[in-house]
Amino acid sequence: MITLYPLKEFKHPIIAESINPEFFQGKSIQEIGSLKIWEGNKERKLRELFKIEEDKADNPTITIHGNIGKVRKIGKKMEKGEITIYGNVGMHLGEEMKGGKITVHGNADSWVGSMMKGGTIEIHGDAGDYLGAPYRGSNEGMHGGKIIVHGNVRSEAGAHMRKGIIKIYGNASQFAGFRMRGGTIYIQKDAEERVGACMSDGKIVICGFLKSVLPTFTIEGIKKKVKIEEDEKAVGPFYLFRGDLTEKGEGKLYVSKEKNPHLSYYEKFL
Amino acid sequence: MPVVKAVTCPVCGSLCDDIELTVENNNIVKVKNGCAMCESKFLGYNSEHRVLRPLIRKNGKLIETSFEEAIRNAAKILTEANYPILYGWSSTSCEAIRVGLELAEEVGGVIDNTAVVCHGPSLLSVQEVGIPSCTLGQIRHRADLIIYWGSNPWSAHPRHIERYTTYAEGRFEKSAWKGYLNKIKALLAKKKIESSIRRLFLKKKPTVHESISKEPPETLSRKGRKFIVVDVRKTKTAEMADYFIQVEPNKDYELLQALRALVRDEEIDVDKVAGVPIECLEEVVDVMVNCSFGALFFGLGLTMSKGKLRNIDTALSLIKDLNMRTKFVLMPMRGHFNVTGANTVFTWQTGYPYAVDFSLGYPRYNPGETTVVDILLRRESDAALVIASDPVANFPTKTVEHLVKNPLIVIDPHMNVTSHMADVVIPSAFVGIEAEGTAYRMDHVPLPLKKIVEPPNGIHSDEEILRRILAEVRKIKNKNEEEA
């Protein structure tokens, strides 16, 4: 097990693709310290920016203590092992991750689990924009895996999502599930407007308040329960909307009936 | 007196190229064909705000220095920086932008143009959805439906309507100018009648404009060019339009999605979207579907209101849907005269239109991460070069705080607010007046910018200044390598 401590408060962006359990495994502490890392436009060695400590236990685990909000791309393309961060972390955490687990005991910046294919990311604080969404211009969103956020998330969580599950135990900002094509997004508290905009398939469940549903969604019925995962169900009742009519229109949007009395207007269409 | 004809106006994205200038003793004395903004630039560029000597900051004060000294200082700042930003570019020539990109690569910095605070969201959406567009000439000759969404060309691009759209005399579509004059006369007569009625019945309260749009007028079903404006308030352009749709602020996305659903013959459960009744939208969609060539122009009202890039995303999707039934194009109303050129040069040099990060030695692009405003907000940069722009005057306060805390180089003909906060100020010649170059019109048509008069003594073009900084940077880097 390797433990990293940042040596200073970073000012410039740090691109740290090399902080990955697979790269660390089987290497001596000297070799790990020589791994390359970028600070602004200067190439550095890992030991120049982090204090590295080794625990004899031979499991592929990395623990980072300290605020590393400027450190980006930790765990990129990671396939196995575990990363635990005690502090805030920067953008692109677990980008294109295929397996393993990342846990953050703090807040994460934007693009957490971008284009993720497998594995689990758990954030105990808040997450930024574009949770699980692809890079600019791409429509290949999350293909699998699981993201759990215990705090709030900003806009466009799960954009272009195809498979997998995103669970948000706080509030979500606008455009959650934008152009979603599959998978599940569960929001335990409130969601801002424009949820599921242009979604063509998949499932979004909102247990809190939603100010308005897009005009391109149509009501289908009222459901008592919704399945979230294999052995987990959300208890309703929920209004079930189908949309987005401007796309294929097979997406399902479940909105809590109890928390949204203003949506009772739609009941006359049932 | 010599008259220079076919001059391209370096003010807005319309880039009118029919300006005639009268020149006397290396001075422009008369402007013909230009709008108020054009005239103001050509006649007033040589104002008291002009800087004629390079300045550097010593002991907290800006003092005059030599050109060479200023270049050396600028090169030193950029070479020593770990994460410099190079911002501006939209009001200079494509040739200067090209050198700027080379400089950004050499110093490993982030280069960004003003699209970041205007049509950046449009570019992001275009990359996701694609853009059906054409040149303004085609719209002038063929378009029979013009829609302006969230833009006020009467004030921001004054000759746009007259040269390229509704009031232009096209080969296949006639100008709607006469109709407009009749409308103005009728409106004036109506106002007179109303005021006389008010005088007769003094107690009657003046009528207040309804916030909700009225039914579309019958004129919308007539033949010939039609003109629709969608905006949050009744602008001058909206007054001229055949039909004005007043959208609730920050509800453009919902309105566009509703239009998309109607174009696709889907039913909508609600009666009103963004304050506009569905019946009105149905009539508008009828007009859109039945036109033979429609053009949608959009401005910052759409790109910078809530939803940003997703507003444009849905506008582009609407055009995509409309093209299944008729011919429709879309065009952003670009502000600065060469912001399209900046995006074009950035793209053919690096692959990306703005916010290009060279810090890892190769171009990277991720707006939100590599955009100048976000970098400044996160306090990550440690030096800046600003060219042909004034970010201190128009960026958010928190970003400005960080911008001025670090070494700042400004290349600008005028002493603007950013220059006052700078460490090195290098005055430059006005491109399109004192220096030649190339600029791109909003429809991606490159037009030449002319040199009309000689610049003042010792003043160089942006391109020349950047080349000198680049050469100096390379010299310092070579020296450092030798020492190492």
How would you describe the overall organization of this protein?
The complex is a heterodimer of chains A (270) and B (484). Chain A has 270 residues and is mainly beta. Chain A contains three helices and 17 strands. Chain A has helices at 21-24, 29-33, 46-49; strands spanning 2-6, 14-15, 36-39, 42-45, 50-54, 61-65, 71-72, 82-86, 101-104, 120-123, 146-149, 165-168, 181-187, 201-206, 218-229, 232-243, 251-256. In chain A, a hairpin with a 2-residue loop joins strand 3 and strand 4. The N and C termini of chain A lie far apart (58 Å). Chain B has 484 residues and is α/β, with parallel strands linked by helices. Chain B has two domains: 49-117 and 337-431 and 456-483, Rossmann fold, CATH 3.40.50; 120-332, 3-Layer(aba) Sandwich (Dimethylsulfoxide Reductase, domain 2), CATH 3.40.228.10. Chain B contains 19 helices and 21 strands. In chain B, the strands form five sheets. Chain B has a nine-stranded mixed β-sheet with strand order 5-4-19-18-17-6-7-15-16. Chain B has a five-stranded parallel β-sheet with strand order 10-9-8-13-14. Chain B is globular. The mean pLDDT of chain B is 92.
Strand residue percentage of chain A: 25-35%
Fraction of residues in H or I helices of chain B: 25-40%
Summarize model confidence as the mean pLDDT of chain A.
93
Helix and strand run of chain A: EEHHEEHEEEEEEEEEEEEE
Q: Which strands sit side by side, in order, in the main sheet of chain A?
A: 5-1-6-8-9-10-11-12-13-14-17-16-15
Q: What count of domains describes the coordinates of chain A?
A: 2
User: Tell me about the biggest sheet of chain B?
Assistant: 9 strands, mixed
Determine the most extensive contact between two protein chains: A-B, 38 and 42 residues
Shape of chain B: globular
> Structural class of the helices, strands and pairings of chain B?
alpha/beta
For the CA atoms, what is the radius of gyration of chain B? 25 Å
The helix content of chain A is under 10%
Distance between the termini of chain B: 61 Å
CATH topology of the largest domain in chain B: Dimethylsulfoxide Reductase, domain 2
Q: Which class best fits the helix and strand makeup of chain A?
A: mainly beta
Oligomer: heterodimer
Secondary-structure arrangement, i.e. CATH architecture of the largest domain in chain B: 3-Layer(aba) Sandwich
- Largest pleated sheet of chain A: 13 strands, mixed
Low-confidence sequence ranges of chain A: none
